[in-house]
Amino acid sequence: MTNNITPTELVALGIYGNERDAIDDGIRHILRSHPEYKIEIAVKKYKQEEVSLGKAADIAGVSIEDMKELLRTRGIAIKGIESIKEIQEDVDRARKAIQ
After folding, report:
1. What is this structure's pTM?
2. Are 45 and 56 in contact (CB under 8 A)?
3. How do residues 50-76 score in pLDDT, each as one tens digit?
4. Burial class (CB in 10 A: 0-12, 13-18, 19+), 59
5. Which residue segment(s) compose the domain that 53 sits in?
């Protein structure tokens, strides 16, 4: 199929402006085809304390309550009160979602 086509070749053909764009598009396609990967990424980032609960839910494409349930079923403790910055990010995401 596309096993032998590289991002460099796609750029040379003028399909993409640069290799990063080609790679990003490939990743987006993979995540659309396998939404479960977004959940795995979100769970890992939350577990490693790289993102807040709200951001993890956003990455996974689920509600905060669904994210909590996903974490519980995997035996991952829900962190306590989030920082002011994390809360503000969650508020901003919610505002964008309703616009």
Report:
1. 0.69
2. yes
3. 998 989 999 999 998 999 999 999 999
4. buried
5. 35-98
